[in-house]
Design a protein that fits this description.
Helix 1 crosses helix 2. 29% of the residues are buried. The two termini are 26 Å apart. By secondary structure, the protein is α/β, with parallel strands linked by helices. Strands 3, 4, 5, 6, 8, 9, 10, 11 and 13 form a nine-stranded mixed sheet that branches.
Length: 299
């Protein structure tokens, strides 16, 4: 993909030696010099500052080397992906994915099924925990890829957006709060059931409250439940109000088991992210899985 003349330049620039470049490329030193001269003529700039028997990169040469590093990385990624798709039926291995509860239950099942059909030899291990624990598992190298609903700036990790989600207040259709439009201040008195600490859902609620001069401690929290299904099942039977991903309550809303409330002056939305460790190229299984997930959601 990268023209040979640029490969010649790369080896000369990386080693600051025409002789070393000739050895690595299995061509003569005069041939190396000729390629560099032709490239400089073509670009109209000097790429090297020649001083006796030594050479140094000029500013244009340094910039070209920077671009070629990126191009070589892209070339490797393309080749890796092509190799995988060419031989996907024969590829074997294991991919460890960690995701928060909402994603595991309502986003990933169809993606995992589609990915397995394309790569039947890859064993997929899915770990389902809250966002905080999933990030810890990624940092501890217990998983290869994390998919979470919250962004935390961590120097050792790369975050890339996946899809958006909405957190909505819901209650039982039998609740006195069903279909109400309420003010944010009313939340201080309404009995609330929330997720456990460390969950992505709770993080979104807390952030929205802080923007409006409130905090979780100001609310009438009667219970905290670990897991989306536990919270959802509780709300169906109780008269309290809770916050859940819209993805998680599609069926319950359609069946009128849960009803949505509206809270004036507050919007609860979040992005879901793919998270990988920095310094590890997103190639092979990981990149293929991310591509499959994005393709599934037409991204």
């Amino acid at each position: 993909m990268i023209a040979f003349k640029y490969k010649v330049f790369f080896e000369v620039a990386a080693n600051l030696s025409f002789t070393k470049a000739a050895e690595l490329l299995f061509i003569s030193q005069p041939a190396v010099s000729k390629h560099i001269q032709n490239l400089e003529n073509e670009l109209g700039v000097a790429l090297f500052d020649r001083r006796g028997n030594t050479i140094q990169l000029t500013s244009p040469g340094a910039k070209l080397l920077e671009y070629l590093h990126k191009a070589r990385h892209l070339e490797k990624m393309v080749q890796s992906d092509i190799d995988i798709f060419r031989n996907q039926q024969e590829i074997t291995g294991e991919l460890k994915v960690g995701s928060s509860t909402t994603i595991s239950l309502y986003v990933l099942p169809e993606i995992l099924s589609s990915f397995h059909k394309k790569f039947p030899g890859i064993k997929i291990l899915l770990i389902n925990r809250n966002s905080e624990n999933i990030i810890n598992a990624l940092q501890d190298k217990n998983i290869d890829l994390a998919i979470v609903e919250s962004y935390h700036k961590i120097n050792s990790l790369n975050y890339s957006p996946f899809i958006e989600d909405e957190i909505i207040p819901v209650c039982s259709s039998r609740s006195p709060y069903a279909d109400q439009v309420i003010d944010l201040e009313d939340l201080r008195d309404i009995p609330l059931v929330l997720r456990e600490r460390g969950s992505g859902t709770l993080g979104v609620i807390n952030e929205a409250l802080e923007k409006n001069g409130m905090k979780l401690g100001d609310l009438n929290i009667i219970a905290r439940l670990g897991g989306t299904e536990a919270l959802k099942n509780f709300l169906v039977k109780d008269e309290s109000v809770g916050f859940l991903s819209k993805l998680a309550v599609v069926d319950e809303l359609e069946k009128n088991q849960l009803r949505r409330l509206e809270i004036r002056g507050i919007s609860l939305s979040r992005k879901m992210y793919f998270v990988t460790r920095k310094g590890e190229d997103r190639t092979g299984f990981i990149r293929s899985f991310i591509l499959e997930a994005k393709e599934h959601h037409n991204l």
